[in-house]
Task: structure prediction
Amino acid sequence: MGSCVSTSSRSSHTNRNNGGCVSRSRLGLGMCRRKRNRKTFSDHVTTLQHFSSIPNRIFMNGKSRSSCIFTQQGRKGINQDAMVVWEDFMSEDATFCGVFDGHGPHGHLVARKVRDALPLKILSFLHSYESKQSGSSTTCCTGNLKLDGGDLEKDGTTEYKVGSLWREAFLKSYKAMDKELRSHPNLDCFCSGSTAVTIVKQGANLFMASIGDSRAILGSKDGNDSMVAIQLTVDLKPDLPREAERIKRCKGRVFALQDEPEVSRVWLPFDDAPGLAMARAFGDFCLKEYGVISIPEFSHRILTERDKFIVLASDGVWDVLSNEEVVEIVSSAPSRSSAARILVNSAAREWKSKYPTSKMDDCAVVCLFLDGKMDSESDYDDQGFSSATLQSNHSGNAVESDDGQNSEPSLQRNFTVRSAEEHDPYKRTVEAEVNGETAAYEDQNWSGLEGVTRVNSLVQLPRFSEEKLNT
Result:
């Protein structure tokens, strides 16, 4: 059967003015290319592959100059959430933020792979565009597309050009990311995948792209100087009419189980599997021909002085807390550096209160404060962060464990559906290699809910079912 994944629309761009060399590039790339300099962008990307050498990039519990991030493992086993904040992403005023929620037997590996590779693909696209526009004879990249709020009032076409460029950057980068996952030699994404909610803040411009049900919201002040919540992204779930229509048009099925009528899922046309609780995702190639796509929803927003902070979080937070509750928790945190941790702790309490018989989902939170200010280092004392942890987070040299904390590298068993106490007689060892690291862990046969609610993917496909193979 044919695939229903439509090719992403390509935005047209008008040529930019060929001016002289100015400080930083128009895209903020900050990589002026001279004829005598033979270092290519591919060399730059190769250098960035060694993430320990990237400054101003954090991906574990901690803080940066303008943000704090925190993740906590739920009760399903390995923490499948990943997150990143990368300040000075392209220029001194550009910040990349992302939250990625993995699902399926290899979901934690998919989420980390996307976390690490997707920002590089965006950088690569922007540099490629910059090179084509500048031309080989240009001595230096210019800066005419770098915007602030004043520029937009004078020239509306500039906003359109920049928005179109960033739309194409996100669309092509997401497409390339999914293609890389499909062809990865050591990572099986057939029924594993990840959501993504990503933003780039550049000056007063906010560019956003997302797939799945991880969400971004904005905390802003209204005319009465009260904090209000503004949802920035849409939860792309199968019950959205346009998403359901696409899936059904591609022969996929959308329905909810009787045990959880509020959760619509995507199923194969010929079997009740895998029960994916989102309409768009990286990976999940078993469903890519049946309506699940990796094309992101893109939007562009101009920030104002009333906008105070942005929160990105996985659905472990949004399943139990409203947008308004999240804004209230973050804005009332005793310190900015503790906001993400307090928000995750609040979500954990709500899970116990609202769903006492369910297994709490993993939670990951990024709080980006738009004025660029953060608390002093002493604020970490009440969070239990040691100075060594702070240093490792800021330098990027820390080793990430499977529960999102700092430890020696190891991979534990993935219990996305079943708990550690639930025995599976069909255990087998699988090896996976991601980013050069090989680890062995036990996979298992998924057979259904078994009393567990709000998981993102219920059952594996028959080709992985030992029971069906033996019958």
